[in-house]
Amino acid sequence: MYKNMLLNADELMWFFEKEPVISEDESCVIFKLNDGINNFEIAFGYALPYVSIKVFSSIGMICSYYLEQIIEMKIKNDEISEYLYVELKQNNDVSSFSIRIKPRIQINLQSLCS
Known about the structure:
Layout: E1 2-8, H1 9-16, E2 21-22, E3 28-34, E4 38-45, E5 51-57, H2 60-73, E6 83-90, E7 96-103, H3 109-112
Antiparallel strand pairs: 1-6, 2-3, 3-4, 4-5, 5-7, 6-7
Keywords: Membrane, Transmembrane, Transmembrane helix
């Protein structure tokens, strides 16, 4: 299952509502969220060509649907240059799926942690 969406980076960060942390090797900024059912982790990497989000759930399809709805609620149609390209893929393992976000703009990782 693939979905292509436009997502505002500020709104994605608002959803996680957690202060990001810089990894020990300072290679990426990490956001984490555990809502009691799903465990989300998003890492903005300095060296990566894309942003990686890992989502783990006891029921992968429900988790996938849940996150898709959240992303769809946060879509905007203006200022496309400020958006991220999102690719959602259901993994073979039904208990997890992954998202790759390709930045359309340069992200200042230090400012994310301020």
